[in-house]
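task queued by scheduler; priority normal; single chain, no ligands, no partner chains; default sampling; output format set to structure tokens
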Amino acid sequence: MDTERAARGRVAVDTETAARERLLAELREHALVIGTVVLTSGRTAEYLVDAKRAILRRAGFQALSELVAGQARQWGATAVGGMTMGADPIACAALAGGADVKAFFVRKEVKAHGLARRIEGPLLAPGDRCMLVEDVVTTGGSTIRAVEAVRDEGHQVCGVLAICDRLAGGGEAIARAAGAPYRALTTIDEVYPQRPDR
């Protein structure tokens, strides 16, 4: 029994490693943009990781689906989402990967018409365990706003998952604000090892 369990564990690790390598290859090929850009934080950078260019392709989305669904299961999440638009395809990837979760999107502001909701998607129950997701983390500001919105609605954050961390302190800020585990599937050092600001 223990041998069988260990073998299943090795297969799961191997599968996750393979999916992560596929995602990393897609990010390097399709998401890395070299040149002067303005980041969400307002800072200027000499490169950008536009993760949507990679994850909205079949190979990138399939790899992401496996990884996000696996992390949702590991953290016992019952809902996956975050600040629109960065979180939207990632939340959908959790569903595509077979995670038994609700997908949701946090609006930047409460909608002024219709149901006037800040969190869109299936109604979240008080006991839902929300896994927040983000495409690229720099300062962590938008993810922290999503954490606050989810908490303001009375929901628990069980963890925060990012596709790529730019290693600018955002991951640590998110972990502090969320009071929950933070994990990045990749870092900028892996996506762009030759980056000039390393």
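post-processing summary
- Strands lie at 32-38, 44-49, 79-83, 102-106, 119-120, 129-137, 156-165, 182-187.
- The longest strand covers residues 156-165.
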